[in-house]
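Internal tracking record. Fields below are filled automatically when a chain is submitted to the structure queue. Please do not edit lines marked as system-generated. If the sequence contains nonstandard residues, flag them in the REMARKS field before resubmitting.
Queue: standard
Priority: normal
Entity type: single polypeptide chain
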Amino acid sequence: MHRTVVWYAGLVCAAAGLTGPVATAAYTSFTAYMAGHLLLGMLAPLLLVLGAPVTLALRAVPVAHARSLTHLLRTPVVRAITYPAVAGVLNAGGGA
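SYSTEM-GENERATED OUTPUT FOLLOWS
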């Protein structure tokens, strides 16, 4: 249950950073711009990861689909991209 709440909180943070008063005020206020930046770039991804979306997906789909998803997640390409050191380099490189 708490993972679902954290996942939705991440979606709300991402939406708040892209729309609403924070996004519209970002054109006139540097503080609002930075608030949107922090919501979208730092808080939302953290909450989405803490929500464990793969675990939620595996629990929500039928067994046959869960097996297909597990097979996909065990492919060499996905394993290489999700390796912590590679993911950290990709994350750091994306901000440059």
